[in-house]
Amino acid sequence: MKIDYRREGELVLKNQIDIQLSTNRKEKPSFSNLKFGKTYTDHMFIMDYSREKGWYDPRIVPYQPITLDPAATIFHYGQTIFEGLKAYLSENEEVFLFRPDENIKRLNRSSVRMCIPEVDEELALEALKKLVAIDRDWVPNMEGMSLYIRPFIISTEPNLDVTPSQNYRFMIIMSPVGSFYKEGMDPVKIAVESDYVRAVRGGTGNAKTAGNYAGAMLVQEKASASGYSQVLWLDGNEKKYIEEVGSMNVFFKINGEVVTPELSGSILEGITRKSVIELLKYWGVPVSERRISIDELHEAYQKGQLEEAFGSGTAAVISPIGELFWNNEKMLINDGKTGDLSLKVYKTLTGIQTDKEEDPFGWRVKVD
Ligand SMILES: *Cc1c(COP(=O)(O)O)cnc(C)c1O
Fold first, then answer.
1. Which of 177, 202, 232 is the endpoint of a domain?
2. Within this chain, do residues 163 and 32 fall inside the same structural domain, yes or no?
């Protein structure tokens, strides 16, 4: 689809993505021992924004460094947002994206919160698909592996005044990633964080923006030093209600019912979270989005009703929680083993992503 429209007498082909192919292809890394986020593909997508032109000049070019003025707003005030999704190779060597339209909608929601101009959803989806198609050799053909896609927008205007930038750059870069579960699903140990908070109601917790992650790094480092792989975040207002685990959404199975914290404004609205909820409903498993306090969870644990717990997000899809540390007490969940429902959700979602399972929801989107 191409819409032609005129702006200040200029003919703009809205969906015309200019393509400049690399003449110097990189050597592919050995896909079997990839480190996350270290290797990038041959191409990237770029589109620029100015007040006068709006978003203009969408193009796919060889992957390369960019040049920015040291006074660019991004470096000082962090006006930026990002997304994360994956492309998967099926057994028939077809490439699929998982609900990419949801990522683009969320990209725009994050942008609105950070005062960044929205992008045309159709154009962004087209760019995503074209880029993946061009670099499709980079989608690893090994079990459990995928091509991680990182769309992001940075503010580029040189200006130290604290006002929204007049210029932006939207880019998409891609990196092949290894299997999250090389040695099978091993449930993680989580420490409940009672001092620091990730986000507050009215803050930016529901936007995928850099500051939220920068602010969590110290806390993550402390948890790692004590032998925990992530922290369980409580709400920033009362430090009472459960919000997220690390940078994943969180689910608990309590006495047969699956509970996940309701979207309070400070929780990032995960697409995996949304898919888990829709899948459980489809299966007829009771699931509710509601406030859940750490006290309620502890009480359920004491009664022997805390049956399973897991995080959800694009990177791991499902990450089972085997132990929660809170108030000097270790809560062991399902004997520290992966629960049956957690495993079933994991298998079904990854099955849908890789074309191994029926997709009654129409979540899978084929590339090319
Ligand atoms: C991206 C993210 C998630 C998970 O979102 P998905 O769309 O499922 O990948 C959850 N919490 C935070 C803080 C995130 O940044």
1. 177
2. yes
Domain count, the chain: 2
Ligand 1 centroid – CA 25 distance (Å): 32
What pLDDT is stored for residue 363 in this prediction?
98
Residues of the chain with pLDDT under 70: 1-15, 183
Report whether 319 contacts 311 (CB < 8 A): yes
What is the Cα–Cα distance from 200 to 61, expressed in whole angstroms? 39
Residue 312 pLDDT: 98
What is the span of the domain harbouring residue 15?
11-177
244 lines ligand 1 (CB under 6 A): yes
Same-domain status, 84 and 171: yes
* CA–CA dist 342, 350 (Å, integer): 12
Ligand 1 pocket mutation, candidates 152, 248, 277, criterion most atoms within 8 A of CB: 248
Which residue is associated with the tokens 């079933």? 344
Annotate 33-51 with three-state secondary structure: HCCCCCCCCCEEEEEEEEC
pTM value is 0.95
- Residue 365 β-bridge partners: 97
The Cα–Cα gap between 55 and 47 comes to: 7
Residue 314 near ligand 1, beta carbon < 6 Å: yes
- Token reading at 91: 């057994």
Q: What is the pLDDT of residue 14?
A: 55
Nearest residue (by CA) to ligand 1, atom 13, is 247
